[in-house]
Amino acid sequence: MLDAAALHALNDLSLVARLIADGAQAGLHPSRRRGEGIEFSQYRPYQPGDDLRRLDWRLAARSDRYYLRESDVDTRLTARLLLDASASMNHLDAAGVSKLQYARLLLAGLAYIAHHQGDAVGLYALHHSGLQTVPPSADAGQLPRIYHALRQLSATGTFPATAVLAPLLARRGASVTIVVSDLYDVGPEHPSSPLAQLLRQLRAAGGEVLVLHLLARNEYDLDYPASAMLEDLETGQRLQLDVTQRATYQTQLQQWLRETEQTVRGYGLYYHRLFTDEVPAQALRQVLRGQLRSPV
From CA 290, how far away is CA 288, in angstroms rounded? Predict the structure, then answer.
């Protein structure tokens, strides 16, 4: 249950992923279902249309009743990890941990959990130069590939144009898509932004979609010295902090947070807000225990 600063200092993403996953003690989805398989689980009465090859003929001969043998079969899905790698994710909290660094820890833990459930997992980083992809796979080398991509990733520029995001919108089968972003371009004031359009279309492409809204506590509380100069990390615009306006800032921030959450949920997506000062394993446990199938 190490905090983000301590985990980042370990400088070993494979170890960190295992620590976070073990601490979270949860999975993305139920790991088994009833069906045709190898390991026997239970009998159920025959129903018209059932495959006769699955009938237990010996039991039928003894009891004059018809039962099918059912087995446990592993479910398989694709976990797609989408990371907003625009420059605003470089924002540092009071402990010196950036949103990007915190997202890296979370996604490494999620990748570990998905992979060890036998699911295919892939990584998609979205930044101004395009879409950086580690295609989904369940093979033994996938985790090192994802860890390497996360380590090498930097947050730069603005969110990519809509046309770049087309590969994310292809129809897909059983899947869960996890988006990590500070959602600055989502809400009623940005209905046509590339990120808003992506979120709107992800649900239509199929599968569950979980949006993790990542914030730093100091931007939430505006906890800076009175002489601080604030800078927009994507535009470079600067603004002298006026401490007398903290109450106004809080009012407007709370309104923006409500509207952003309503917008995401209105798309039919699951929404969860996280802060970078939360212990990653505890934060991930809350996320994975959430009602992914009840986004509204």
Answer: 5
End-to-end CA distance of the chain: 30
Q: How far apart are CA 150 and CA 267, in angstroms?
A: 28
pTM value surpassing 0.85: no
Residue 132 has φ and ψ, to the nearest 5°, of -95, 125
The reply to whether 248 falls in a domain is: yes
**Cα–Cα distance measured from residue 266 to residue 157, given in angstroms and rounded to the nearest whole number:** 28
Give me 235's structure tokens. Answer: 């535009």
Which of 74, 100, 127 is the last residue in one of the domains?
Answer: 74
Q: Quote the tokens at residue 223.
A: 């906890």
Strand partners, 181: 213
- pLDDT: is 238 or 47 the higher one? 238
Region of 72 please: left (phi>0), alpha (psi -120 to 50) or beta. Answer: beta
In a domain, 263, yes or no: yes
